[in-house]
Amino acid sequence: MESKELAMQIALLLDSKKATRVKMLKVRDLTILADYFVIASGTSSTHVKSLAEEVEFQFKEKGVAPLRTEGFQTQNWFILDYGNVIVHVFSPDARDYYDLDHLWADGDDVPLELPAPDEA
Q1: CB 56 within 8 A of CB 49
Q2: How far apart are alpha carbons 4 and 30 in whole angstroms?
Q3: Residue 1's pLDDT band (boundaries 50, 70, 90)?
Q4: DSSP alpha helices (H): ranges in 1-75?
């Protein structure tokens, strides 16, 4: 699966599961770490954990497993590394503290391609 398509599908899944402040950044020209970052927040530690678990589960079902995961001990910030796409799911406080939105502000915001109301 192409990295942009994977990032978009992950961002849309997070949005559908009521994640807040879902953002997709193209960082390909800024770093060798990844092509895209998907950044999202949950409303509580339980919500943050369930968002990360849902992404991992849904994409394993499609045959796409993360290369590594981090944060399942802390439940404040989960990272799912899919190679060219890195997913960050934060608690609101952790997102403000680490401020990846500001740190990677030179990345290109990619608008989410939300389905039309009759497609949902």
Answers
A1: no
A2: 16
A3: confident
A4: 3-16, 45-61
